[in-house]
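fyi for ur records
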Amino acid sequence: MSAASCLLTEDQFLCSICLDVFTDPVTIPCGHNFCKACITQHWDTKVPYQCPNCKKVFNTRPELQVNTFISEMAAQFRQSAQQKASSSSSEQQVVKPGEVPCDVCTGTRLKALKSCLVCLESYCETHLEPHLTRPGLKKHQLIDPEENLESRMCVKHDKLLDLFCKTDQVCVCMLCTYSDHKTHDVVPLKEGYEGKKAELGKTEAEIQQMIQKRRLKIQEMNRSVELSKEGADRGIADGVQVFTALKESVERSQAELIDTIKEKQRETEEQAEGFIKELEQEISELKKRSSEVEQLSRSEDQLHLLQSFTSLNAAPPTKNWTEVRVHPPSYEGTVGRAVTQLEETLSKQMKKLLSELELKRVQQYEVEVTLDPDTAQPALILSDDGKQVRHVDVMKNLPDNPKRFDHCVNVLAKQSFFSGIFYYEVQVQGKTGWDLGVVRESINRKGQIPATPQNGYWAIWLRNENQYIACAGPRVRLSLKSQPEKVGVFVDYEEGLVSFYDVDAAALIYSFTGCCFKEKLYPYFCPCNNDGGKNSAPLIVSPVNHTE
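which gave:
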């Protein structure tokens, strides 16, 4: 018997109804064998009585008797198969908590490799073999192991969920398209899966972009803290330089100044740390979401992806960080309060220190500025590096460019600014007339143009060697203690502030405050007419000298 069973194949011991090794095998009159329970249940639900294999019909229900010979053969084969499975189970993985077990294994249950959407069962490597070798089972759809296979069946029609309703964004079966979803836009499950997977890819790209923006914002804030610390260090050093030579009252003022500066620096760092903590929290949440999206995107399980997509689609709440900044504090007021406590003899020295500190603060925002030849009036000559401009008596024959000034001897910078803070310096030494400032992009560039804020100009003038004017509309005559040789221009777009400095004297010349900027701003230069050679010196955009 043992030798004979070794010559038989596994298929000869499988019931064609349950596809498993015979249990209590019976032989019906046509000669085919089945499990007693399987053929009994089959005939209980089928009329007439017919063989499931050859379709032979019996007029009366055949009496079933267990075939002892086949039963013994099947028992030996089952025992042999169990021994084989037992020996191979050491090589296969025993199911662990959270993993899908094989539905066929008895005793020690192994980890399932695949689930069948037709049989609604999960199989380990051994019990999966019929689905890989038997022609009838090869057509069954296999997926990654799924514990709750019943969830893939339509609860209303008990049919496989193999379609996706784009109208209601749900998975449906074929019968659903004849009832509740009759007029809806229904596509195959694969098409819906591919569409949602493409959406997930787009979502993943957007999340990565959000993460990158927040990383850049962290870098920006760290740089702001560094600039703030450098300013604080300079403020402390300058304060110490003045106060160390003073008596006891001056020493007290020195300590107060240092403590105040440090406190402002600490507040700035705490503010930045708070923002950074929020950004890192958002990055952490976005990374978590990215991981979920990536994991879902890798899924080959079409139904699982579609059913999980809706709950994953809602993005976590995030802040718009575009306008959030850490501004380095100004120590002007702090030093000023310290100065007022000192003796009158120190007032002049302290005020000079104040101006130097303010100038050093704004010089931190230095930007690159080069002149734009496409805007230069034809009587202007620009240097090759775009850093100098002067007026000559001969008009060049240039094309009529809409950006070019045709009457006023003006030129704009190539660079424009639509937000933030910026600063640049211009050498005016040797000139008897000049204009400097910023203009909005939409200014009129043709004909005679009054330079006023109403017309988009925020500028100061020099006329007749010593007449300094702020073009504030009405004009403001400026009284300066000395003639500037280098002028600094500082703009805070959000604060609506435009300030001009005498760089060598470290003194504020004039400020436009409360400005309302809604367009791009361009640095603006006018060297004025050369006045027979008296005003032939050029305006020169100069690099900032960051002296300690």
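Residues 1-89 form a domain with the Herpes Virus-1 fold (CATH 3.30.40.10). thats all i got for now
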